[in-house]
Amino acid sequence: MTQFTGPLEFFIVEATEYVESLDALLGTASRSGPDPERFGKAARGLRGSATMARQYGIADLANALERGARALREGRLRWDPAIHAAFVSAVDDLRILLRAVRSWGMREEERVLHRLAELDRIVPALEGTTTRITPRTSSAGIAFLSKQTADLAEAIAGFRQSPSDQARLDALLDRARSLRGVATLRDLPPLSEVVDAIDDLGKTISLAARPVTAGQLALFDAAGSVLELASREIAAGGRPDSSGTAVQRFSQARSALARRDDALDRIVPIGDLFASGTVGIIHASTHPPTSAAQRFRLEVVSQAEHLRRVIADARLPGDPGSDERIQRELNAALQSLLESAESFGERRVASFVGAWRDRVLRKEPRAISAVDEAATLLADASCTPERLTEGLERLLPDASRETRPPVTPLASTPVSTTPVASRAAVPG
Question: Which residue among 80, 253, 313, 407 sits deepest, i.e. has the most Cβ atoms within 10 Å of its Cβ?
Fold first, then answer.
């Protein structure tokens, strides 16, 4: 029998029931979407429960889903695969957030902000509003945002003068993280993209035991230029120019740095590290606790869920800065899935990703839909090998299907006996 030790535990149980109801309604949704009355009622119940428990991030997300249900009921929202994916991702995030209510922190806040920004691009636009600095953002708030942006640009300039100074890097990261937590930033592209890049790069440099590279400095320099210009534009009551020369230079610097990182971060078989003709010292266990197919299924669930979230972002219109970021994330997600499949000997999954990858990166609707559906199957831990194999076979491009190998369940696919390491690391 379940024992409740306090209001928070009761909230978790009650909220979980609402989330499961939302998930079930999305799972049985028709072409016109889920039942708006029942979906709205479940979202409203979750919002009320979260508000009572003072879990305001969850309440805000439930409120966004409730508004979506209202728009569906009133005929102002036309259901399509992109909206379906956004709602599914929101419900998935609610489930994750519920598991984190006892240790809520910046990561959970960022998850809420990201998902709210996605839903706000769908529903408010249909209500006749636009994403901008609204009257609820006071003149004092605009001045604060302008100053925070200028302070971060100044911190970048200070770090660039002395890139080996850890204190300057720490000050830069403090500024970036303070600005990263401002919700309004999500409404002002490309600021969120720039701040995210600064924070990520700063953490990479902190952890690396090597000097700052020219490519990293170039990205800081481009980001600082975007922030300086944005600070002046915000102070004047305007919006940052998301397609200007400064933003283009930032995108180019970020892409160039990513290409260099990708070239370094490649997977090589351990066998390649031994001299030709020698015998390695690594042997496969005769009685492993789990099979390679089982380990692949455990690992691929999170990768597939991430791929679905990136695909949902790719389906939405955005500014040049976010488009470049989504393109990079989509490529990275596909590459990660491809490498995992090859590492575990799951050749059918690897072939599927390889067959669609270029067309997905070109944002061909058919390719995106096929990979999204495949990712849904991979993210379902209860999906049987036979069902997964049949699904991938059905979703293959026509040309690939004509030259396909004989169909065998994925769990029965022979597993390569060659261990794989990243950057020549010996696996634990």
Answer: 313
Q: Which residues of 229-253 are buried (b: 16+ CB within 10 A; e: fewer)?
A: bbbebbeeeebbebebebbebbbeb
pLDDT for the residue 343: 81
Instruction: For 279-301, give the DSSP string.
Output: PPS----SS-SS-HHHHHHHHHH
Closest to 116 (Cα-Cα) out of 51, 159, 66:
66
Could you give the CA distance from residue 378 to residue 300 in angstroms, rounded to a whole number? 7
How many residues are listed for the chain in this entry? 428
For residues 127-140, one letter each, b for 16 or more C-beta atoms within 10 angstroms of the residue's C-beta and e for the rest, the string is eeeeeebeeeeeee
pTM: 0.42
Residue for token pair 């300039």:
157
Cα 295 vs. chain centroid, distance in angstroms? 22
The pLDDT assigned to 298 comes to 73
Residue 211, number of CB atoms within 10 A of its CB = 10
The position carrying tokens 């979703």 is 395
Q: What is the DSSP letter of 344?
A: T
The enclosing H or E element of 267 equals strand 267-269
